[in-house]
Design a protein that fits this description.
heterodimer; A: about 240 residues; alpha/beta; two-stranded antiparallel sheet; B: about 325 residues; seven-stranded parallel beta sheet; five-stranded parallel beta sheet; 8 helices; 18 strands; Rossmann-like_a/b/a_fold (chain A); ETF_beta_N (chain A)
Chain lengths: ~240, ~325
């Protein structure tokens, strides 16, 4: 089974988010980048599925050379090889087109993405990929099992879950529950250095949208502390002042 | 040129987020001078479809086909795109719900449309170019996205646009879709729904608890408080990681981002990752025995005290309020 895992390189979850150039660009100064946490789940699942010679795992990232430590980490976790599409990841449509272009030539059985990225919070790449490759795409998977050419997926729905089966090839957006993220061991880190990391040039994609500017949410006022002996006062404030009950 | 709004149902009942999408579509139509039409897919009663009129939308296109009784991402995306094409719609609006997140990119790709997902406000329109706000970096910032294409797909974040009543009469028109076998290759085997629980992504009030609760056996009072308020329950990441509560309840940067009217955080210290997922809540109440807990810095109201002492009193206070 040939598995492709799509990696996004995102600011660490503790990062303070600021902007530059008159609030038109993200300020990456001093930011530590990590594999998108949901993509780590996808990667762990792919490695698990391919274990014991049952398949191969390729990781793909659309981004500049600065992301190579993230790609090497994925190789250390157990991916067999990697591709970096050498371009600024303009938006999800651009990224999905680059991945689809590569995937079309390689004929993967399973393409895994995280359910969304924690930077732009789009859950778009998996849907775009499904459409560009004319294969099913399943969002917010909580469990995934593969039986030869068929996948069984447990998907989160509002207020419950849904179990579905679908023939490969497919794209799946993975969430918590699919696999536990893996921490690379020393052997993995050593072997990652020698694993192939191919650099591909991007294909042209028309610009459909762009982020014009950013702002930070308005600061909240000072907290109103209520004495624990006066709990009814909180109920009154929620009704009369905040008007939320 | 017109606007198509896809209206989601759960087992035949239109969802709360559907009413928000309808109101949003009506407001966009008022801005552009176009007409908004609703599209329902699946088995929904005529009475239920007539509710669309309460939000100012005069026409519903109804697709009720045996193959489409259950949500299948690919097939639903094909139907939405086909209907949009057949009526010449240039804007498609849907909810950024769990199923909407799967649909929106497929519909956008089929139409060659620009996609704004996670929209939190009405667009600012300047000819073909629309600017739409969305939250990014897990609620740590707001981005204004500029859509340049004439065709647009907008996925509206639940709870970000209030449903407004504006009653009109409704006409319902049937539509028979042409489906390719490939669209129906996904087979839904089982759907398990907790019918007595309020859906977390759509909830107006969320009661959330963390490690301060000490163990899963202490969640009964959280559920009781949620029950009194008609709220959904949620939890912090350490709690779902420990298996005290299901992952589906985890709110925060790597869980679900929520934006209810009222978020009550009990025994949660307020790590930056948790705050990111809940800071878009309109009002935040924090109950924590540590007066230095970072959560108090972003809260509107706070009580310093032990959850085991405060929550039972709070339940009684809300019960008394409801009974008056």
């Amino acid at each position: 089974m040939k598995i492709l895992v799509c990696l996004s390189n995102v600011p660490d979850t503790t990062s303070k988010i600021t902007f530059t150039d008159n609030n038109t660009a993200f300020n990456s100064n001093g930011i530590q980048y990590i594999i998108n946490p949901y993509d780590e789940i996808a990667l762990a699942k792919a490695v698990e599925l391919a274990e014991g010679g049952k398949g191969t795992v390729t990781v793909i990232h659309v981004g500049e050379a600065a992301a190579e430590p993230t790609i090497r980490k994925a190789l250390a976790v157990g991916a067999d090889d990697a591709v970096r599409v050498n371009a600024v990841a303009r938006d999800a449509w651009f990224v999905a087109n680059q991945i689809a272009h590569y995937a079309k030539e390689q004929q993967f059985d399973l393409i895994l993405t995280g359910r969304e990225s924690i930077d732009y919070n789009g859950a778009q790449v998996q849907g775009f990929l499904g459409e560009l490759l004319s294969i099913p795409s399943i969002s917010i998977a909580k469990k995934l099992t593969i039986n030869e050419t068929e996948a069984t997926v447990e998907r989160e729905i509002e207020g419950g879950k849904e179990v579905l089966t679908v023939s490969l090839p497919i794209v799946v957006g993975t969430a918590e529950g699919v696999a536990e993220p893996k921490i690379p061991n020393m052997r993995g880190i050593m072997t990652a250095r020698t694993k192939p990391l191919q650099v591909a040039e991007p294909v042209d994609v028309p610009l459909l949208s762009k982020i014009a500017h950013y702002e930070t949410p308005p600061a909240r006022g000072q907290v109103k502390l209520i004495d624990k002996a006066e709990i009814a006062q909180l109920v009154n404030l929620l009704h009369s002042e905040a008007k939320v009950i | 040129m017109s606007i198509l709004v896809y209206i989601e149902n759960v087992e035949g009942a239109l969802k709360k987020s559907t009413f928000e999408s309808l109101s949003y579509a009506k407001a966009v139509a008022d801005l552009t001078g176009e007409t908004a039409t609703a599209l329902s897919i699946g088995r929904v009663s005529q009475d239920e479809l007539n509710k669309v009129g309460q939000y100012g939308i005069e026409k519903v296109i109804e697709v009720d086909n045996n193959d489409l009784e259950k949500f299948v991402n690919q097939a639903y995306a094909s139907v939405i795109a086909d209907v949009a094409k057949s009526m010449g719609a240039t804007t498609v609006i849907l909810s950024n719900s769990f199923s909407g997140k799967g649909l929106a990119p497929r519909v956008a790709a089929k139409l060659g449309a620009a996609l704004a997902d996670g929209a939190i406000a009405l667009p600012t329109i300047s000819g073909v170019t629309w600017q739409i706000q969305k939250t990014v970096f897990s609620n740590k910032a707001i981005a204004t996205e500029e859509l340049h294409e004439q065709k647009k797909v907008i996925a509206l974040t639940p709870n970000s646009f209030e449903a407004k009543e504006a009653a009109v009469a409704v006409t319902i028109e049937k539509y028979e879709p042409q489906l390719a076998p490939n669209d129906l290759s996904t087979v839904i085997k089982e759907i398990v729904r907790a019918t007595d629980k309020v859906s977390l992504p759509e909830a107006s009030i969320v009661v959330s608890a963390g490690r301060g609760l000490k163990g899963p056996e202490n969640w009964a009072m959280i559920e009781e408080l949620a029950d009194v308020l008609g709220a959904a329950t949620a939890c912090s990441k350490p709690v779902s990681d420990a298996g005290w509560r299901p992952h589906a309840e985890h709110v925060g940067q790597t869980g679900l981002a929520v934006s209810p009217n009222l978020y009550i955080a009990i025994g949660i210290s307020g790590a930056i990752q948790h705050l990111a997922g809940v800071s878009a809540s309109k009002t935040i109440v924090v109950i924590n025995k540590d007066p230095e807990a970072p959560f108090f810095k972003v809260a509107d109201y706070g009580i310093v005290g032990d959850a085991f002492e405060i929550v039972p009193q709070l339940i009684e206070a809300f019960k008394a309020y409801k009974n008056n």
